[in-house]
Amino acid sequence: MKWKARRSTLRSVIRKHKPQLRLATNVDLLVHLNCLLFLQRLAQAARTNAIEMKSSTIKPAHITAVTKSVLKKSRG
């Protein structure tokens, strides 16, 4: 099953958490893209960690091991 995030839903979540911000028209697309890029970086780092640990699959331990370093690299 594919899950699609509606643009209006994403905009309403952003407005709920930061109501004082004025949002540009395509800010929801940029937030969605940023999320996808972060998940891709996390998956690549976890895959590298899994290979280093001689594992053929990515396990939760591999993700938790690289989460902190990926978050530091993703700070803007």
Précis, in short:
It comes from Microcaecilia unicolor. The chain has 76 residues and is mostly helical.
What this model shows, in words?
Helix content is 68%, strand content 0%. By secondary structure, the chain is an all-alpha fold. The protein has one domain: Histone, subunit A (Orthogonal Bundle), CATH 1.10.20.10. Helix 1 packs across helix 2. The radius of gyration is 16 Å and the shape is elongated. The mean pLDDT is 89. GO terms for molecular function: DNA binding; protein heterodimerization activity.
Architecture (CATH level 2) name: Orthogonal Bundle
Helix content: 55-70%
Alpha carbon gyration radius: 16 Å
> Number of helical runs?
3
- Kindly state the number of beta strands: 0
Main β-sheet description: none
Intertermini distance: 33 Å
Summary keywords:
single chain, 76 residues, mainly alpha, Histone, subunit A, 68% helix, protein heterodimerization activity, nucleus, Histone-fold, Centromere protein W, centromere
Describe how the helices and strands are arranged:
Blueprint lengths: L6 H11 L9 H26 L7 H15 L2
Helix pairs in contact: 1-2, 2-3
